[in-house]
Amino acid sequence: MGDRHELENKLKGESLVRKGLMRSHAHIKPMRLIPDLHVIKIGGHGTMDYGREVVIPLVKEIGEASKDHKLLIVTGGGVRVRHILDIGIDLGMPTGVLAELAGKISEQNAEMMALLLSPWGGTRIKGEDLLDLPMMLKLGFLPVTHGTPPYGLFEHPPGTGLIPPHRTDTGAFLMAEVLGAASCILVKNVDGMFTENPFVNPDATLIPETTVDELLAMDMEDMVLERKLLYLLKDASSLKQVRIINGHKRGNIAKALRGEAVGTLIRA
To answer: Where are the transmembrane segments (predicted)?
Structure first.
């Protein structure tokens, strides 16, 4: 076997998986590209599927908030995602294919949301446009994108079942993390995280503030957000919390942007 060709650098000869190497640069904090950005994820199932009665007032609230805050709007898929997943699972589609199919639905919601927000500069963007956001925000655009992470056919195995574990909650969080955003706000159709699904058990208790470890220890049967997001939050470098709010109640987005105690705050 001949000698390996090397370029002189600090990682010369490294496997890139050595534990000591990981620890050696753990103190280095990545730059925060847009530290005053707020990522707002608009759920498809919890918001878009309710139609104009819920969506139009929410759009106006977001539009007004964009005058004072830098925002990135991220959309979910909703009922149509559930429909295509149901068909795909029944037909035995692999998880990566299901992720591809689901992503196309949240893209449709992003297009509609961008058009609704056009009076305030709403502009449809795609994943490859994220690094253009600093300039777009300076020019007065209100960027809107879909939340499905671009794993596509390379989606991670879910562990149990076939449903892709990384969906639009995790996609919104990953965008907020890579941009070094100030916050990630998940807009749902409930007041926050409850001890149980409040639509199933009306006596479920709202959890105003909690941590990742506390939620994982509860081992809930159901959650208002994707479980995978909790593990991502625990390992994040820039974003150390997410907030869940009810988008059906006017004023909640403004409160969340001001950092007020509304909904549920989940800390790393």
So the answer is: none
